[in-house]
Design brief:
InterPro entries: DUF1365. Keywords: Membrane, Transmembrane, Transmembrane helix. A three-stranded antiparallel β-sheet has the order 1-2-3, with no helix packed on it. Helices cover about 40% and strands about 35% of the residues. Strand 2 and strand 3 form a beta hairpin. The protein is α+β, with helices and mostly antiparallel strands. The chain contains one helix and three strands; from the N terminus they run βββα. It has two domains: about 1-45, no CATH class; about 45-78.
Length: about 80
């Protein structure tokens, strides 16, 4: 149920070695009915690492699509 009475809030810590983000939704009648959180840790990376990651991402997506197509084709054949 989503209506205009909801109150969305986001909490996060100051950027540092760790990050913590929480989203929550509070409704006057239903109370707290949705909460999502994310915890992350900073890792070091070089420009070369980032370039390789973004260069490989389309290839990873294409491979995932072909994998799903082959799985569906296999099910269709059986």
């Amino acid at each position: 149920m989503q209506d205009m009475l909801e109150n969305w809030s986001m909490r996060t810590n100051a950027p540092g070695d760790n990050i913590f983000v929480t989203f929550s939704v509070r409704h006057p009648k239903l109370g707290d009915y949705f909460t999502a959180s994310l915890t992350g840790k900073r890792i070091s990376s070089s420009a070369a690492d980032l370039a390789l990651f973004f260069w490989l991402m389309p290839h990873n997506v294409a491979l995932a699509i072909y994998w799903e197509v082959s799985a569906l084709a296999w099910l269709w054949i059986i």
